[in-house]
Amino acid sequence: MSSTYAFPLGYVEEVSNWATETAQELDPSVELALVLATAAPHMTKQTPRPKVIIVAATAFADSGDQAVQALRPLETCPFADRSLFRQAFEPTSPAALYEASSDLWPAENRYAADTLWSDADFGTLLAKLSDAVGSAPSDKSLVLAPVSPASHDDDLLRDMAFSVLGESYVVPYAIWDDPAEDDINTRWLREAMSAVEPLGTGHYIAEADLTAGATRAERSFTTSDWQRLQALRARYDPEGVFHSYLTP
């Protein structure tokens, strides 16, 4: 079951702070994410469709009643009347979730992505990124911010395949379809990242723009994890048969 709000981009800081605070009241069965994007066609009849901040929550529960209770804290939004779109307690399915994901990240397009871990709050990070989304050369480009990107349980984190390097996590995506626009969209992504990079504590290796800087790969791990990785490579691949990370 899902609940979704979409607000004008001008409310990004206020909405982000409210969603982050509300997330602390949500059951672990609820996945909550913030998205800065162009409003979907079903959200508004405005032309052109405006840029919005979307609050999307999905509850994975054993019954409809449990899902409603899990999503209930989101119904206390103090400025719900300012939303452009609101849909609460909507039954959904894995297939429908995949379809919604395909709408945000359509097939047969061109993509560039980068990631940032930070100890800054989402209100601060997304307020800076909202300006970039508002001026994106492609209306498909977006910023994803999972509100609880990783566990805080040290026992669960100990054997993670990547390092958790901050409290907040954002992923700007440049999405376009014309190869002639590669440069302008890649430049947009890097300019967007430059707005929040000073607040960063590292990157997530799987989607980081590793060609943007020589230290990107190393900054995707804690110091001890990076040293461990280099030792493993030296031990098992001393001749460098496997490619290392991309660099500029």
* Contiguous helical run count: 7
Strand portion: 15-25%
The low-confidence runs, each spanning 5 or more residues with pLDDT under 50, are: none
Shape: globular
What does the main sheet amount to? 9 strands, antiparallel
- Give the beta-strand count: 9
Describe the structure.
The model has no long low-confidence stretch (mean pLDDT 94). The chain has helices at residues 12-23, 64-71, 94-104, 122-134, 154-157, 182-196, 223-236; strands at 2-8, 30-38, 51-59, 85-90, 110-113, 116-118, 142-146, 168-176, 200-202. The chain contains seven helices and nine strands. Strands 1, 2, 3, 4, 5, 6, 7, 8 and 9 form a nine-stranded antiparallel beta sheet that branches. The chain starts with a strand and ends in a 12-residue tail after the last helix. The chain is globular and about 60 Å long. With 248 residues, it is an alpha+beta fold. Helix 1 (12-23) packs antiparallel against helix 4 and helix 4 runs antiparallel to helix 6.
